[in-house]
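Much of what follows relies on a compact textual record of a protein's fold. Each token is a code from a learned vocabulary of local backbone shapes. The record below shows the convention in full.
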Amino acid sequence: MSGGVPPVRRGRRSGGSDSRELILATARRLFAEHGFDGTSLRQVAREAEMDPAMVHHFFKGKDELFAQSIELPADPDEVLAGVESLDPAQRSEAIVRAVLRLWESPAQHGLVAFVRGTIGSKAKTALLREMVARTILSRITAGLPGSPEEAKMRGTLVATQVVGLMLMRYVVRLEPLASASQDEVVRLVAPNVQHYLTGALTPPN
């Protein structure tokens, strides 16, 4: 039929310049709603209305898709490399120094922007919570004695110290903590981190 409006093509999206961003936007929403374990690559492809092969074209697997969905300015695996191999009784100083090295590297501006952009956003907070549990706390608590529930609690308590340190020193810049040397920060903060890792969590009777 000549002169008519061409028929609308239906079906899955083909590859294009915006396909990758569409996959990421869809993945962010699904990871935030259902968590890492509750989200599959096939589900992401279905929600984005494209062939699953397109998702695999841009991302090696679900771990890579999840990591890039969060848009972290640094790779937690690199920052905490080797921490899980240390004796739990000697792990706290390495954790604190790793945090300080990261935040005092060229990634600092990106980290501050990430933290500020996450606070107040339910979707970004959910993604961050999932990432922290899977990537960071699992390394910090590897090999700790006690039940899995106790290790999870210890990891969460360590996170309160580390997150508080990051916010007060680098985002709020509260003095005198903001100007303290790295060695001084380690001396003051590492004992608290170590207590949460291996110390008693209940007061003695």
Observations:
- DSSP finds ten helices and no strands in the chain.
- Confidence is low (pLDDT under 50) at residues 1-14.
- The radius of gyration is 21 Å.
- Residues 148-171 form the longest helix (24 residues).
